[in-house]
């Protein structure tokens, strides 16, 4: 029987036994099968003092990956895990709870050591990367505790892999982790940094792709800022950041006048038209208006913008009428797999046109517009032929109707004749 250290320790033990936690439980549920838990103190808590008194931490700890790999309480906190009384257990190299800098030092003792991390296929660069970020500069160079340390983004007790949906660094949870500070106005104002990035991102094309369509190819905060090396991309880098994913748009953009800006001119970035956090496509009917944001109304550039807008509007209306023509054919009971195929091909040309407009090159755009117009014309042609056939069909039916009416008329006439010819039998009866 464990001797209580004092009345508080006694209450703690009492609480443990009520919740049934001093009974040995199978180690860590839901972890990779076949892992050996020999080093896991949680499998023999009666011999690991920290777990007996700190039942809440034990539960959290058992869910995380460190307990699977034998990283134990005293690896991070020090102290004597074989002691069952507070003064001894909290003796020796016991550090108590860990401050931000201590925490960083403790995590780095393993995670910055490539020899230890190699066997798990993990990089050992997190602290080196953190050092290069605004966060790391603030914490390490200025000793300012407003900045995040390792344990602000990774729960030190329930430490989970980034691909675990319960982890704070799982793609759909990352923005909430950043929001703890970046949505806190009182924390951000002294640094002159605005808040609201999280809400803006959530409602952007990227947020909708990520949260509503579960499209994990869309960036969360770290897709543009990096995780440990979080920094805002500077103006010159933005096209590279967006271009990592939007490869074709980037290529088209680089061919246009804005991608080729050189010399003293500040380069134009994707975010000048699409914004960084509330990223949206520019509506077609607002293209010319967008140019006016920087170029003189009525000037050569805005005129070009209007022409670009017209090309896209015409192509969009071609697509719309082709789509309606296919629907019409379906309503008339036609087999439309060929037309559907052509429509899909035209749609991918239309998407190419949307990308290509980043070149602002009317000649290249005209070629693609022609392809779309010709596909649309073919499909509409088919629908028109079908409509004519339908009309012809109706005309063809006219003689048949006449013939049928004639028969009915003749039959009525014959009936009347028959009636008048039959003798009146009623009177003879
Ligand atoms: C006999 C019970 C008992 C044992 C065994 C025990 N602790 Fe504690 N621990 C306590 C109590 C009681 C407190 C004080 C409550 C508080 O401050 O939250 C505490 C506080 C702590 C704190 C917080 C200190 C702070 O500065 O806030 C840490 C960290 C901690 N213990 C870690 C450990 C570790 C690691 C072990 C094993 C090596 C361990 N404890 C073993 C009872 C125990
Ligand atoms: C990977 C390192 C690591 C391991 C392993 C770890 N801790 Fe902690 N612990 C921390 C850090 C860092 C803090 C600082 C507070 C924070 O960031 O949550 C902390 C805080 C604490 C605290 C005080 C703050 C609080 O939340 O009440 C207690 C008590 C504690 N740990 C107990 C334990 C016990 C018991 C174990 C073993 C089951 C354990 N820790 C395992 C890193 C660790
Ligand atoms: C005693 C060494 C040790 C210490 C100290 C340590 N870790 Fe770990 N950590 C590991 C090992 C081993 C793994 C398991 C690697 C694996 O199996 O993928 C791991 C895994 C992780 C993972 C999951 C990575 C992945 O993709 O598998 C994160 C996140 C993590 N640790 C963060 C921390 C943080 C934050 C701290 C400090 C609070 C810390 N670690 C302290 C050894 C340690
Ligand atoms: C600002 C938040 C933040 C801080 C601070 C932070 N991390 Fe991370 N960490 C992340 C995110 C987000 C990921 C997921 C990266 C991904 O999915 O590409 C991650 C991933 C990891 C991984 C998995 C392997 C990898 O590198 O992708 C480990 C291990 C890790 N962090 C350890 C640490 C350690 C150690 C520290 C302290 C030196 C630390 N982290 C500080 C946010 C943070
Ligand atoms: C513990 C609080 C905290 C957390 C969590 C946090 N940050 Fe920060 N972050 C700060 C502080 C404080 C600054 C101000 C640094 C400065 O300007 O010196 C900052 C600055 C930044 C900057 C630089 C802004 C600029 O204009 O210089 C970026 C980018 C950033 N954080 C992104 C992130 C991302 C992405 C996450 C989540 C993965 C995150 N932060 C999580 C506190 C935090
Ligand atoms: C699509 C890319 C992208 C995504 C996703 C993104 N950011 Fe940004 N962020 C940027 C760019 C680009 C800047 C620089 C803007 C500038 O300098 O004008 C920036 C700037 C910032 C800044 C500096 C202050 C500001 O608002 O200008 C912070 C803080 C920040 N981002 C945090 C976040 C957080 C938190 C998330 C996740 C909710 C996030 N970012 C998601 C691209 C992105
Ligand atoms: C990590 C990859 C990634 C990065 C980085 C990225 N995006 Fe995206 N973006 C996507 C994905 C995925 C979608 C959703 C695609 C879809 O729904 O068709 C998307 C959608 C968009 C859309 C809407 C497209 C549409 O058809 O409605 C725009 C505009 C956009 N991104 C611009 C940007 C800009 C500007 C940047 C840089 C500041 C950027 N993206 C950075 C992956 C990325
Ligand atoms: C965010 C500001 C901005 C927006 C929006 C913008 N531009 Fe520009 N554009 C510039 C800058 C800066 C230059 C280089 C300096 C200059 O020639 O005026 C430039 C140059 C050009 C040039 C080359 C001019 C030359 O003399 O070589 C053309 C053409 C052009 N833009 C067309 C457009 C069109 C069309 C739009 C709308 C779709 C547009 N721009 C939207 C900033 C912008
Ligand atoms: C001068 C303003 C301007 C700049 C700069 C700009 N775009 Fe666009 N972008 C547009 C317009 C306008 C559309 C919408 C065209 C349409 O469909 O009507 C668009 C559409 C898009 C789309 C959706 C259509 C598609 O092709 O997938 C994406 C993604 C996109 N832009 C990404 C980017 C990226 C990445 C950059 C930087 C390399 C960038 N844009 C620079 C004006 C701009």
SSE blueprint:
Layout: H1 7-18, H2 49-53, H3 55-63, H4 65-68, H5 73-77, H6 86-89, H7 100-111, H8 114-117, H9 126-132, H10 134-141, H11 150-153, H12 174-182, H13 185-188, H14 197-202, H15 205-212, H16 221-225, H17 238-243, H18 247-255, H19 271-274, H20 287-292, H21 300-331, H22 337-356, H23 362-421
Helix pairs in contact: 9-10, 21-22, 21-23, 22-23
The protein binds heme C (HEC) (9 copies).
The site of one heme C (HEC) has 22 residues, from helix 7, helix 9 and helix 11.
Architecture overview:
This protein is mainly alpha-helical and 429 residues long. Among the domains are: 1-97, no CATH class; 285-419. It has 23 helices and no strands. The protein is elongated. The site of one heme C has 19 residues, from helix 2, helix 3, helix 5 and helix 7.
Low-confidence stretches: 1-39
Number of helices: 23
Shape descriptor reads: elongated
What share of the residues lie within helices?
55-70%
- Structural class designation: mainly alpha
Work out the strand percent: under 5%
Any idea what the radius of gyration is?
37 Å
Regarding quaternary structure, how should these chains be classified?
single chain
The SSE order reads HHHHHHHHHHHHHHHHHHHHHHH
Short description:
With 429 residues, this protein is mostly helical. It contains 23 helices and no strands.
């Amino acid at each position: 029987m464990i001797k209580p250290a004092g009345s508080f320790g006694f209450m703690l033990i009492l609480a443990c036994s009520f919740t049934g936690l001093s009974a040995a439980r199978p180690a860590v549920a839901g972890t990779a099968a076949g892992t050996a838990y020999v080093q896991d103190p949680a499998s023999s808590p009666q011999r690991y003092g920290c777990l007996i008194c700190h039942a809440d931490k034990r539960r959290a700890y058992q869910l995380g990956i460190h307990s699977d790999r034998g990283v134990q309480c005293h690896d991070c906190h020090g102290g004597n895990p074989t002691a069952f009384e507070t003064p001894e257990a909290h003796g020796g190299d016991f550090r108590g709870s860990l401050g931000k800098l201590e925490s960083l030092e403790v995590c780095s003792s393993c995670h910055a050591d490539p020899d230890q991390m190699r066997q798990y296929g993990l990089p050992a660069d997190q602290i080196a990367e953190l050092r290069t970020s605004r966060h790391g500069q603030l914490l390490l160079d200025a000793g300012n505790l407003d900045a995040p340390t390792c344990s602000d983004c990774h729960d030190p007790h329930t430490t989970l892999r980034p691909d675990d949906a319960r982890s704070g660094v799982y793609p759909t949870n990352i923005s909430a982790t950043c929001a703890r500070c970046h949505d806190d106005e009182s924390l951000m104002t002294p640094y002159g940094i605005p808040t609201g990035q999280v809400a803006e991102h959530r409602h952007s094309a990227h947020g909708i792709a990520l949260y509503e369509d579960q499209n994990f190819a869309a960036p969360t905060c770290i897709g543009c800022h990096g995780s440990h090396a979080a920094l805002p991309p500077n103006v010159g880098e933005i096209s590279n950041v967006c271009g990592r994913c939007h490869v074709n748009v980037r290529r088209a953009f680089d061919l246009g006048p804005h991608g080729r800006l050189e010399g003293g001119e500040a380069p134009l970035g994707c975010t000048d038209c699409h914004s960084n956090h509330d990223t949206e496509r520019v509506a077609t009917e607002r293209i010319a208006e967008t140019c006016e944001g920087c170029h003189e109304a009525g000037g050569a550039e805005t005129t070009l913008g209007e022409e670009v807008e017209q090309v896209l509007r015409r192509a969009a209306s071609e697509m719309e009428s082709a789509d309606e023509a296919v629907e019409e054919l379906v309503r008339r009971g036609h087999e439309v797999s060929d037309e559907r195929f052509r429509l899909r091909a035209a749609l991918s040309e239309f998407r190419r046109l949307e990308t290509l407009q980043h070149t602002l090159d009317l000649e290249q755009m005209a070629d693609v517009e022609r392809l779309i117009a010709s596909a649309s014309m073919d499909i509409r042609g088919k629908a028109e032929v079908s409509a004519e056939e339908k009309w012809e069909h109706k005309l063809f039916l006219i003689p048949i109707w006449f013939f049928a009416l004639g028969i009915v008329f003749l039959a009525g006439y014959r009936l009347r004749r028959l009636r008048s010819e039959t003798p009146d039998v009623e009177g003879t009866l």
